[in-house]
Design a protein that fits this description.
This protein is an alpha+beta fold. The chain folds into 2 domains: 168 residues, 2-Layer Sandwich (Beta-Lactamase); 49 residues, Arc Repressor Mutant, subunit A, CATH 1.10.10. Helix content is 54%, strand content 14%. It is built from 8 helices and 5 strands, in the order ααββααβαββααα. The protein has a 5-stranded antiparallel beta sheet, with helices on both faces. The N terminus is likely disordered.
């Protein structure tokens, strides 16, 4: 079990001496987060690491989660430390309400002291009534002036968190959001590069197949392409795959 320091935060492995004040403790944890988040290959992995770090950093947190949200309020990536957090978060997006969505939409930190006495999200609090979840802190993940998601911690006990816990979580979310935005941009660039590479490969295969069909069948270019499309439909295969068959000499005259 992780040891607690006098500031009321668990040791996350970031080598944070217990006597450090909040600013220095946060700086040490931020450096640790940078090592975690910026070395992941995918956004989902980075978001999961952030959720784990948030749980370890806040006293009384029984679980934590992090979500990236698009401008329409749809979750695009998420990380959760356990099934309870995952279910509670999923209910927010299904119902369109909850502390995490409010933190994201209002771009401010949200405290829920006791889910049984909470009135701001009646549908969500009713839905989570059977879960071991009583209090929560949620804060937006801000990249510049844009909220790209939210970071939250939950507890099985009411009134589990202090104002200092909220301050720490809010301050932690700022650099974390910038790092996640960086990972998002890198991931998007990699996907675009992969898509472009695939598209160019497809085009090359089809062009070569058209040339082969033109020579083999004495067809014009548009006729050769139509023939390849017809073969694809007949065989219920992608045009690219049929083109590759032709290029590799496996297609026969039809």
């Amino acid at each position: 079990m992780d040891a607690m320091n006098p500031q009321g935060h668990r040791d996350t492995g970031a080598a944070v001496p217990s006597e450090l004040p909040l600013a220095r403790e946060l700086a040490a944890l931020t450096a640790h987060l940078a090592e975690l988040l910026l070395t992941h290959d995918t956004v989902d992995e980075a978001v999961q690491s952030l959720a784990n770090a948030a749980k370890d950093a806040i006293t009384g947190a029984s679980g934590a989660g992090a979500s990236l949200i698009d401008p329409r309020g749809r979750k695009t990536s998420s990380g959760a430390t356990d099934a309870v957090v995952l279910h509670a978060d999923s209910l927010q997006y299904e119902l369109g309400e909850g502390p995490c969505l409010s933190a994201w939409a209002e771009q401010r930190s949200i405290t829920m002291s006791d889910s049984r006495a909470e009135t701001r999200w009646p549908g969500w609090t009713q839905a989570v009534a059977g879960l071991p979840l009583r209090s929560a802190l949620s804060t937006p993940l801000m990249s510049g002036d844009t909220a790209i998601g939210a970071l939250k911690v939950y507890s099985t006990e009411p009134d589990a968190f202090t104002p200092r816990d909220m301050e720490f979580l809010t301050l932690l979310a700022r650099p974390a959001a910038l790092m996640l935005a960086n990972v998002q941009a890198r991931d998007a660039a990699q996907r675009l590069s992969s898509d472009l590479t695939g598209a160019l490969s497809d085009r090359d295969a089809i062009q070569r197949a058209v040339g082969i069909m033109m020579e083999r069948e004495d067809l014009a270019a548009d006729q050769a392409l139509s023939r390849i499309v017809a073969l694809s439909r007949l065989r219920q295969r992608a045009v690219r795959d049929t083109a590759l068959d032709i290029v590799q000499g496996r297609a026969h005259k039809g």
